[in-house]
Description:
By secondary structure, the protein is mainly α. Helix content is 42%, strand content 6%. Strands 1-2 form a two-stranded parallel sheet. Strand 1 (66-69), helix 4 (72-81) and strand 2 form a beta-alpha-beta unit. Helix 1 packs across helix 5 (113-135) and helix 2 (35-43) crosses helix 5 (113-135).
Amino acid sequence: MAEGALRAATAKAGLTIDIDSAGTADYHIGQPPDRRAIATAARHGVDIWDLRGRQLSEGDFDRFTHIFAMDKANLAGIKARAPRESRGRIALLCDVFEGRDGEAVPDPYHGDEAAFEAVWKTVDEAAQTIVKQLRT
């Protein structure tokens, strides 16, 4: 959902940037997002049905200037894989919010529709904040 929210926010702002999402584990490679995530994004006018899971690669650390993790465990995994000469800034997504440093985006997988809506709210607000930061 975060990739979809950021793609939508940057498109609306007229920004062209390279956006992609990846997992630290390999168990969702090639799979579409959870059907509930697809439905949640669609309710907000964002189509993510064609996205497919992939694993973070070494090239991502050179390809992207910012790499955001959803939680501290994934943040640690990303940092552990980062080459020393990596140019990418690695942080939690919620670090873009003032006063929310270190906060994780909750995993809605075991929750209900409300859990997915809450995550959408967070990732959409983060996307709007990132767009504002990119414009300054």
